[in-house]
Amino acid sequence: MSQQERTSTETALVVNPNSCGGLTGKNWKELYSKIKDIFGENPYAVFSKKPGQGTFLTRDLLRKGFKEIVALGGDGTINEVVNGFFEEIVVESQISTHKLDTHMLGKQNHWESTRVSHILKPIDSDAIMGVVPAGSRNVLAKSLDLPDGIVECCQRFVNGKPQKIDVISALTTRISTGKPGTDAKDHSEGVITRLFLNAAEIGVGAEIIDRSKKIRDKVKSRIVSTISSVIATLPTYGSNLCEVSIDDGRQSLMLKMTMGVIANGSYLGGGFKAAPNASVSDGLLDVTILKNSGSFKMLDGFADMRGDSEQTFENNDIYCTQSKKVSIRSKERDITVTVDGEPIGILPGTFQVYPNVLTLKF
To answer: pLDDT digit string (tens) for 18-52?
Structure first.
């Protein structure tokens, strides 16, 4: 798109035409007419037609000078647009240490190691994001208390006020071979960083999502794929020994984890309220871990859990706290990680909050 081809609007839509079961693309002409009436202008629209494309489209739009980017699609599309607002800078620094040689009094050996830091850099710190959910679950929209319907959410965006919110980064292990859930093997290939707004799921919840997406490649029905993955996963899934570090060692735990949630929003899929105290603008992660259980009964209890927003909450089966950073390492087997409903890799993983780095209008 050249500067001459661009309209005078500063608003662009990143649209997933396959959302709403393909109805977004099928009915786009009629839908766009309604959107134009609400916006009072002709917002520029681009279409994300394959996984990951929304991120690159968003970065391109921001670099071309668009100031408002509205994601129109499911939770996966919204997540891609969030990632497009930032670029990751990897900084390596040398750390020097000195160790006393006891065999030569007064002589110190010089050691150097490399520290790798991952820094988020906004493409345009003044840019504003909008969310128009058009998926089958729309979990983030529930956490943000957005209305149902594309037209209603467009109206909410136009009338809304820009608000600074937190973004969470997930640094996990990338899979190259093997399958999540198998015995741990040397099949990792580096790390992957993914940003998210709502929640990361680890363990049984993530495995159900991963299986469901694989089944849906063959069976298009979401209901069938979800039920099949639950039946295949939940009855046989066991807890796994994990090492958990809160805020770089402020608290360290060794526990048998069945399911973990690192939350910015309150809800997971199906209206499951796993983090009732979560806020997208408090500068904190809400960490909830279900322990020592693979049963349906414990999952029901997990939904009803209520933790203290200022203190660590723990009983025999549930651990709940708030922090700015949490690292989790499996001591037994590969454990799947998903963010905003999308599988991204396996543990070990580090999750860190970046307070007030994204402007969301809602």
So the answer is: 999 899 999 999 999 999 999 998 999 999 999 99
Architecture of the CATH domain 11-85+123-160: 3-Layer(aba) Sandwich (3.40)
Instruction: Give the position of tokens 């937190």.
Output: 166
Distance CA 25, CA 31 (A): 9
Domains of the chain: which residue ranges?
Answer: 11-85+123-160, 89-119, 167-355
CB 324 within 8 A of CB 247: yes
232 pLDDT above the threshold of 80: no
Pairwise CA distance, residues 62 & 46, whole Å: 13
Give the Cβ contact number of residue 168 at 10 Å.
Answer: 24
CATH classification of 167-355 is 2.60.200.40, yes or no?
yes
What's the pTM? Answer: 0.84
Kindly report the number of other CB atoms within 10 A of residue 198's CB atom: 28
Amino acid at 269: G
The structure tokens listed for 308 are: 């203290």
Cβ neighbours of residue 221 closer than 8 Å, sequence gap 6 or more? none
Round to whole Å and give the CA distance between 263 and 142: 13
Alpha-carbon distance of 6 to 296, in angstroms, equals 54
- List alpha helices for the chain, DSSP H: 23-26, 28-39, 53-63, 75-84, 139-143, 150-159, 204-216, 222-233, 296-303
Bridge partners of 69?
A: 12, 129
CB 85 within 8 A of CB 122: yes
